[in-house]
Give the backbone structure.
Amino acid sequence: MTVESTAARKPRRSSGTKRAAGAASAAKAPAAKAAATAQNAEPQLVQLLTPEGERVSAADNPDAAEFLSFVEDITTEDLRGLYRDMVLTRRFDGEATALQRQGELGLWASLLGQEAAQIGSGRALRDDDYVFPTYREHGVAWCRGVDPTNLLGMFRGVNHGGWDPNTNNFHLYTIVIGSQTLHATGYAMGVAKDGADSAVIAYFGDGASSQGDVAEAFTFSAVYNSPVVFFCQNNQWAISEPTERQMRVPLYQRAQGFGFPGVRVDGNDVLACLAVTRWALARARAGEGPTLVEAFTYRMGAHTTSDDPTKYRRDEETQAWEAKDPILRLKTYLLASGGADEAFFESLEAESEALGKRVREVVRAMPDPDTMAIFENVYADGHALVDEERAQFAAYLASFEEGH
Amino acid sequence: MAVEKMSIAKALNESLRKALEQDPKVLIMGEDVGKLGGVFRITDGLQKDFGEERVIDTPLAESGIVGTAIGLALRGYRPVVEIQFDGFVFPAYDQIVTQLAKMHARALGKVKMPVVVRIPYAGGIGAVEHHSESPEALFAHVPGLKVVSPSNASDAYWMLQQAILSDDPVIFFEPKRRYWDKGEVDTDAIPGELHKARVAREGSDITLAAYGPMVKVCLEAAAAAAEEGKSVEVVDLRSMSPIDFDGLQVSVEKTRRLVVVHEAPVFLGTGAEIAARITERCFYHLEAPVLRVGGFHAPYPPARLEDEYLPGLDRVLDAVDRSLAY
């Protein structure tokens, strides 16, 4: 693989300039937006569906026009599908939060508010793409066809992940912040070596962008021109630390320093997230290397069920974000445009109920693992010490059964 | 004739070459491993013959090297990464301990992690800070990792290939002050098991257990002791995770005395584990407590003091005498 010069891959969106003349680009590279000058300034976002539920047209916004081409094929039926994904994901998430409160789960990391970022990006993927999530990507998992109840094992404490990542090309949840961005980069290096045209997407949060591993992932992916999309859900809070504690410039602008494009998208706009992720994936497939997508969104709930957001953030802030709800805005649009009728929403409500019921039943029926599972899969090729300790512990347990 | 005399460095180089030839999924990655051939030239000539896609010069970022190797392993590759020196492994320690070691278990066995982390380690070359350390116990303590160290050219050649063939992550410690020691390598041999100890010298009065750079010191001590009429057995452990306690037990039940020798600090080191386990297994055979010879609970000293810090012939022989005095 040759490493393109930085000039040939001049950052588009983060540089504040039009794209370099003559740059080879299979995917249409959108024109630049003026960068926000401070983290707290009202951010410039790629937005295709406003919080009021109105579609942004090419005439309204020339910048959006270039991304609109990536969702030209989206039909009304597709929009209903995206809506359904978001609703069911929110229902699953709410059910899991309730199950944690009822003592069925030890912990839960809610995605409430981030449905559009996850469904939009998740639905942009092809089956042969590979996903490296954090521990909050329940919506992306849904898009990958992972049974949502599989996600609950680690939170219930019966395993540390437990699914086969290769079944749905969806890697295990990673708890150490930012580690998976390097795994994604290495995997993408392998994809390029194999000559495949699939892409890899790494999810992480605004807090993770402070981690060295994320910087190293940017470095490796840039110098090897790897087909990886870094999808950062900037949900404004890393537990109790606001973004001001993570960065002084808008996050997406970091990409520029590494030599690849960064773009900020309205993370509560499922259509914009779909379009921007498709654009970034197309760049990856075309051999144009990594992209950083910053989905500007908000975590409506706690970081996990262990923290209390009222201790560190204001109600007014949360309320302001409620008005930008990703599900509500698509519902408004679908109703106004005649894309869906009441029967659709009623049927979806019934489907939600059924999903919630199934999740409750499966979780409550989830058995504790066998005691001897402690010793399983520590090594692929076996290990004398594990064998010895397994035998000793089995004998110890057996001594009770024999009534000694 | 497949028996050839070569240095440990050359044996490692030949071993990597063979691995690259035999499996197109094997990759070499690290800082300076390409054009330069590594700062110790262990990868000399490999990029020239196998190309930049197989022998990859990486950015100067150890966590990145191991983290991307994990991703490549998930994609079906078998990366062999080089950490330039022992003390530089710590930026990658997080990836090794929290990710590499646990991936197989977290996936309930559905994915394998055939990654080898090569680390030139230990002292004796007059180097500056962070270039002479022996952190093997920190890795052997971690479930999911295997930890080995060859002491001679034949083991260097064979153990590295066995490590690459393993579906488990292997931390491969190379005794850098022995890189230029020569020995016979039979490239047609059927190698012994990767994690089996080897009796390097037979004896009947006491067992010295060591690995990596200290095996040579122990063999010299055994030769010196023989002149005084003492019969010293030397066991080259070869593997620190797992440790071949069965093999060591056979030796200790014969000699009834054991001294463990390593360069790493004695406190909570490999020798502590060996002393505890052998005491449990051989309590009624032992004529003396298991003794340990190793580094102090102090940072590895400046090079001008390393000869005092490193266990040498005299300190090993002193421990032999103390054991025999019981």
